Amino acid sequence: MTTSLADVASSNATLRALLHGLPGVDRVGADQRAAMLGTRSIKTTAKAKAIDLAISMVDLTTLEGADTRGKVRAMCAKAMHPGDGAPTVAAVCVYPDLVAVAAEAVAGSGVKVASVATAFPSGRSSLEVKVTDTALAVAAGADEIDMVIDRGAFLSGDYLKVFEEIVAVKAACGEAHLKVILETGELSTYDNVRRASWLAMLAGADFIKTSTGKVSPAATPPVTLIMLEAVRDFRDQTGRQVGVKPAGGIRTTKDAIKNLVLVNETAGDDWLSPDWFRLGASSVLNDLLMQRQKLATGRYAGPDYFTLD
Prior knowledge:
10% strand
């Protein structure tokens, strides 16, 4: 990049000039490439490895108003011991008031605790509330914070407000990693997805995430493709690597493997790690475990053999 970060954020005009100067997205081309990559077949040995890799990338999630301490503890137990010989998942994701429960449950396991914050899922709150929400979650033991951007500000062109909020939340994270949720289903165009991706990365995001899972459409393959292109190009221009997390609508092993193909063919195998790619899901883990057992034993176990999340 020829413009320093300080110069980019010096005004809304300079930020707008950079974001609107990004190459436009060929919508038809993005749709076709994502569809083509989704047809790739993976053979048995590679499929077994892909399933274990996908399990290790899952952010096992419960984000419901009816969540209880017992439900979170049960989810954490499953995260640490998904199935016979299966790897642990990457993280558990909960609301801020349940972070301490999750942190105690997974202590010493290597499973991270992620927490949504910043008035999730709407993001409609003051910056003071968002920063406080983040700081409290980190103090309770969160390793990762999933924040939502102010889509209203972004869509009205107030890019500097969105940028400054991400910077402030990143500062409140301390040592915790920050995932910035774009809520791509509300961004209207692929060009906006690319711009929001770059805006979040310029502001210091460690990950960019498609969705809250509360808005449809969520993590569609073309949107994930565009975000993977963005992190690839951002690293080429700045030297800093940023992760990607599709979330919402990933329910089957086929969906998970399609995402791994997208990563490998778009960003490259440097991103094929839980450090750089996550699957935000509450239901895909069971299907991955069922397919894993089918490959290992030749017998397909139904959903009744696995705990419900």
